[in-house]
Amino acid sequence: MAQTAAVIYGKQDIRIQKIAVTDPLSDEVQIKVAYNGICGSDIHEYQDGMDLAIHKHPLTNKCAPLVLGHEFAGTVVKLGEKVTSLKIGDRIAVEPIVACGRCHACLAGNYNLCERSIGKDNSAGFLGFCADGGLEEYCNVKEVFAHKLPQNFPLDLGALVEPASVAVQAVLRSKLQPGDDVLIQGAGPIGLFTLLVVKAAGAHRVIINDLSSQRLALADSLGADLTLQEKDPNLLTQKVNKFTSNQGVNIAFECAGFQTTLNGAINSVGKNGKVVVIALFGSIPSVDVRGLLKKGGSLLTSYGYANVFERTINIIDNHRDSFRKVITKKISLGHVVDQGLELLAKDKHQAKILVQLE
C-alpha cells in the first residue's frame, strides 16, 4: 500500500512523493494523520538543513531522506501486538520525542534531555528530524508517546498539543504564582501559547512585545493586557516599569531568540524576578549576570517538554476557542512548501499553519 508524504532530502529539498505504508512494530500504533502543524524549526530544517539527520542517528539508525513534521494528531487505525492502552478509533496527539529510555536523564523522567538523542551531526531527537514524522497519511508511533484525546476533541486542536506543551513546560519551570505579572518577548506561536498558558495559570497582567503589528493584534485578541512594539531593550524596560508602577514583572519569558530581546527580558524583571529562556538562539548570547545578581534575579531555561502532554490537553480542552485563534491557515500536503514553510517565514499575519491530511 502506498501513501503520499512530504519527504525532506536536505537543505531546500522537499519532495511530495509516494512511499510505502509499513506495519507498526509491536510497541507502536499506526495513526491516520489528520493535521500536522508547521513549526519554526521546520522552517530552519528546510532552509538550512538544521538538526536534520544527515548521518544515521544513534537511536533510530535513520537519516535523510525522511518524512517531515512533528506537530501532529490523528486516529488509531492499527495496533502493534503488544499495545494495550489504546484501541482502533482512538484520537491521539503525538509526542514526537525520540529517547533511549535507559540513560540517567531518561530514568529520572527527563527524557527531553536524553543523553543519546542528539546525533554527531547535531541531528535532533524528534520525529521529522531523525525518523519519519507526521507529514504522511499514515504514521507509526510508539504507544508510550501516543496520547489519547477526549472523544470529541477536535483533531486540528490536537495538532496544537505539541507546541503548546513547550509553553506549558516553561510555565511549570517558572513556578508562576497566581497574581504574577509577566512579560513575553516574542509573539510567534510559542509566545502566543505562553500567553494563553500563563493566563490559564492565573497571571495578573501579561505584557507581550514583538515587532510585528499583525501578531500583536492576535495577542491582543487572546487577552494580552499590554502589547508593545519595542526593539530597544532600555525603552522596553521603561514602558514595562511604567505599566507596573516601577516594580517590573515577576517573570519574563524569552520566546524570540535575540540578544536584544534577552537583554530586555533581564532588564524588565523586578526584585527576585525570573527570566525563562524558551527560544533557541542562532548565536551564543551574552548574559548580564551582574544586573540579575543585584536584584536577586534568576535565569532558567526550558527545553522541549516531558510528562506534560496530558496537562496540555486539559488546558486546551478548557480554552478551545482561544487556542483555535492561533490557527491562521489550513493547507493541503501538496502546498507544504509554498503556502506553508515559505509563507510562514515571510508573512507575519500567520501564526500556526496546519497541513490537513484527512
Please name the fourth-level CATH homologous superfamily of the largest domain. Answer: Medium-chain alcohol dehydrogenases, catalytic domain
Biggest β-sheet, characterized? 7 strands, mixed
Which H/E pattern describes the elements?
Answer: EEEHEEEHEEHHEHEHEHEHEHEHHEHE
Kindly report the oligomeric state of this protein: single chain
**Beta-strand fraction estimate:** 25-35%
Total number of helical segments?
Answer: 12
Kindly report the average pLDDT value: 97
Give the proportion of residues in helices: 25-40%
Describe the model.
This protein is α/β, with parallel strands linked by helices. The chain has two domains: 2-160 and 326-356, Medium-chain alcohol dehydrogenases, catalytic domain (Quinone Oxidoreductase, Chain A, domain 1, Alpha-Beta Complex), CATH 3.90.180.10; 167-301, 3-Layer(aba) Sandwich (Rossmann fold), CATH 3.40.50. Helices cover 29% and strands 25% of the residues. It has helices at 40-48, 104-107, 155-158, 161-174, 189-200, 213-221, 233-243, 259-268, 289-293, 309-318, 320-324, 336-346; strands at 2-10, 13-20, 28-37, 66-67, 71-79, 91-94, 138-142, 146-148, 182-185, 206-209, 226-228, 249-254, 269-277, 298-301, 327-332, 352-356. Strands 3, 5, 6, 7, 8, 15 and 16 form a seven-stranded mixed sheet that branches. It has a six-stranded parallel sheet with strand order 11-10-9-12-13-14, sandwiched between helices. A three-stranded antiparallel sheet has the order 2-1-4, with helices on one face. α4 (161-174) packs across α10 (309-318) and α7 runs parallel beside α8. The two termini are 17 Å apart. The relative contact order is 0.15. The model has no long low-confidence stretch (mean pLDDT 97).
